[in-house]
From TrEMBL:
Family: Belongs to the FKBP-type PPIase family.
Residues annotated as domain PPIase FKBP-type: 87-174
Alphabetically ordered keywords of this record: Isomerase, Rotamase
Domain of life, source organism: Bacteria
Protein name: Peptidyl-prolyl cis-trans isomerase
Organism: Lentimicrobium saccharophilum
Enzyme class: isomerase
Length: 174
């Protein structure tokens, strides 16, 4: 074997050994040092959103019920059709606003919304709320960010961590 061929091989071997030593000298970060500040920040964000929702309901003098997940709803017109159920396709006429009042989606402009109940593909708060309705019902839903589009938003009109206000009618089920 030629000596010139062996030299690069020895260099690579030395570098590999040294990088292994560097990894051995690193300290692992204690997860508790990171976890506690993140939990505190998350609790503060949830508390701030809850206060914002309560203030919104108070300002508009809405009477709302709340589910165990935090969805607020008010059925202000009762229909006479069948109850929504998992596996059915729900058809909605709707308006969606941010809690700031800015309208972001509207069925008059964007078309009716259709989705299969229980399959996902829409905000979990919307799915939960639809199961409270019957065809012909008109309702308002306040969907906190954790039941909406969460930390990322919808990558279109819904910003990150947004509370959504739905005003909708369950038009049909099929």
């Amino acid at each position: 074997m030629k000596p010139g061929f062996l030299f690069p091989f020895i260099i690579l071997l030395v570098i590999a050994c040294q990088s292994g030593k560097q990894r051995d000298n690193t300290r692992e970060i204690d997860p508790k040092l990171v976890e506690e500040p993140l939990l505190h920040a998350n609790r503060q964000a949830i508390k701030a959103e809850e206060e914002q929702i309560a203030g919104f309901i108070s300002r508009y003098k809405w009477t709302m019920e709340e589910t165990g997940t935090g969805l607020r709803y008010s059925i202000y017109h009762r229909g006479k059709g069948p109850m929504a159920e998992t596996g059915k396709i729900a058809v909605l006429r709707y308006s969606v606003r941010l809690i700031t009042g800015d309208e972001i989606y509207n069925s008059d402009r964007d078309g009716l919304k259709e989705f299969m109940i229980g399959r996902g593909g829409v905000e979990s708060g919307l799915e939960e709320g639809i199961l409270l309705l019957r065809v012909g019902d008109r309702a308002k839903f306040i969907i906190p960010s954790h039941l909406g589009f969460g930390l990322l938003g919808d990558q279109n009109k819904v910003p990150p961590k947004s509370t959504l206000i739905y005003d909708l009618e369950l038009v049909s089920l099929h």
